[in-house]
Specification:
It contains four helices and 18 strands. With 288 residues, the chain is α+β, with helices and mostly antiparallel strands. The radius of gyration is 18 Å and the shape is globular.
């Protein structure tokens, strides 16, 4: 086991993955100062750093919740919320003996969520909050409206989309082939589309039947991603809002399966696995 003690040039960390979506967990008390975007990019780099889809910085002391968490994308930007990140953070807290199998709360920049670890730490359920389709909350430019079945022009191509927020922005494409190639081709164009002033996460949705959907994901600030908890929730909520699936949905992604439940007012919860990968120590940081 790696010690939680650090020196200025020795920073311990833990790496976890949730359906192939991997994060590094850093404790703020092991850092001398705030991480710069360049340092976050260094940590997450697949060749120069430990390699990850982001950094989870916590636990942080906060009011109104049991734990606080900040989430950083590998491009150095900060994310409001991450479903997989929250499940990983919960498993980390479990492994550190800071929580048991009783529910607890976590503050994120996208709101406070309720979390529970079960199945001896192998599965985590997160109540992610309410999915909203309000253009002003997402945010998305144009008149105030629910963004349902709109046309978005991307690269000279008309795409049918719905947009939603669950504390972070999502654009769900319903009219395109659901393939990795399409996600990689159109994802960055949609993420940076002028209609989304804060950029957006992107999902390509295929409804299999009333109980299951499949998605490919382009994640804001991270790129093509094998799995995403918040993307699963947003996509399931869109499919349900369109009347294409029931309120209990299995979301299939390249990395695996997340189960999502949707209440009548679109409060949403998800359950999925988390696996520890390794513990390590960073030997120094580049200049901020």
């Amino acid at each position: 086991m790696v010690s939680n003690q650090s020196t200025p040039n020795r920073i311990p960390f833990c790496k976890y993955q949730a359906l192939g979506n991997d994060y590094l967990v850093l404790r703020p008390d092991n850092l001398d100062a705030s991480l710069s975007p360049a340092q976050i990019q260094y940590f997450c780099h697949r060749h120069y750093g430990a390699g990850s889809d982001g950094i989870l910085l916590g636990p942080l002391p906060v009011e109104g919740a049991d734990f606080g968490l900040r989430i950083f994308n590998p491009d150095g930007s900060e994310a409001e919320k991450s479903g997989n990140g929250l499940r990983i953070f919960a498993r980390y807290l479990w492994d550190q003996g800071l929580v048991v199998d009783a529910p607890f709360t976590v503050w994120t920049a996208g709101g406070i969520v309720h979390v529970q670890v079960h199945s001896n730490g192998e599965m985590v359920t997160v109540e992610m909050g309410q999915v909203r389709f309000d253009s002003q909350l997402i945010p998305m430019k144009g008149r105030p409206r629910e963004v349902i079945n709109e046309t978005l022009v991307v690269g000279g191509q008309d795409l049918q989309i719905c947009a939603a927020t669950i504390g972070n922005p999502h654009c769900v494409v319903t009219s395109q082939l659901v393939t990795e190639a399409e996600a990689r081709r159109l994802g960055p164009l949609i993420e940076h589309h002028y209609m989304f002033p804060n950029r957006t996460n992107v999902q390509f949705l295929e409804v299999r039947d009333r109980q299951s959907i499949r998605i490919e994901i382009w994640e804001r600030g991270a790129g093509y991603t094998l799995a995403s908890g918040s993307s699963s929730c947003a996509s399931a909520a869109v499919a349900h809002r369109l009347g294409l699936c029931d309120a209990s949905v299995a979301v299939h992604m390249p990395g695996g399966l997340i189960r999502v439940k949707i209440s009548p007012d679109y409060e949403i919860s998800m359950t999925g696995p988390v696996t520890g990968v390794y513990e390590g120590v960073f030997w120094g940081l580049p200049a901020a």
